[in-house]
Amino acid sequence: MMIHDITAKTGRHKLRMRVGRGEGSGKGGTSGRGHKGAKSRAGWTSRPGYQGGSTPLMRRFPKRGFSNSGFRAEYHVVNVADLAKHFEAGAHVDIDAVVKVGLVRDSKRPLKVLGNGDLGHKLIVTAARFSDSARKKIEAKGGSANATVPAPSSDSAAE
Fold first, then answer.
1. What backbone torsions phi and psi does residue 83 show, to the nearest 5 degrees?
2. Is residue 16 part of a domain?
3. Which one, 9, 117, 137, 149, has least CB within 10 Å?
4. How far apart are CA 51 and CA 62, in angstroms?
5. Has residue 110 been placed in a domain?
């Protein structure tokens, strides 16, 4: 006899235990909650991480290091090949125009242009950041790459 022979007759899922339906059911009386106390009452919940009064696990270990994740800038990223595909020659491209053609979802994040692909015609692009290769490709076709956020200077990083 195989397990699929048994489940075909009895059903795939086991029925849930119905508690509080008399002593003969095996879960009558206190319905598996023990005697008295907060855990036996309706509405009792435990705070996440609470360990019965002992020092919680997250407080037993020291904090070490530094995380820069709270300060990281998130950008919408677009490649120059996508700009060439969606915009005509001489077009003004900014975050609103990119949202309008559907390359990015919304204008909540600043725009960053990357240099993947070829740019076949002149574009005037305004974005928060440009990669070096994107800037070179745009300017090589006679367009302009206008950054709205100044790039971090190398001398401030040395201080």
1. -65, -40
2. no
3. 9
4. 18
5. yes
Helix or strand (DSSP H, E) at 7:
helix 3-10
Structure tokens at 145: 């790459």
Closest among 107, 100, 150, 148 to 125, alpha carbons compared = 148
Which of 3-17, 86-100, 144-158 is the most confident on average?
Answer: 86-100
* Amino acid identity, position 87: F
Residue 24 lies in a domain: no
Tally the domains of the chain. 1
Q: Read off the pLDDT of residues 60-69 as tens digits, 9 standing for 90 and up.
A: 999 899 988 8
For 62-75, b where at least 16 C-beta lie within 10 A, e where not — what string? eeeeeeeeeeeeeb
- Token pair 């003969």 is found at 24
pTM of the predicted protein model:
0.57
- Mark residue 117 as left, alpha or beta (left: phi above 0; alpha: psi -120 to 50; beta: remaining): left
Output the CA angle 157-95-82, nearest 5 degrees.
Answer: 95
- Residue pLDDT, tens place only, 138-151: 999 999 999 997 66
The secondary structure of residue 113, as a DSSP letter, is E
Contact (CB, 8 A) for 113 and 125: yes
In the predicted structure, residue 49 carries a pLDDT above the cut 90: no
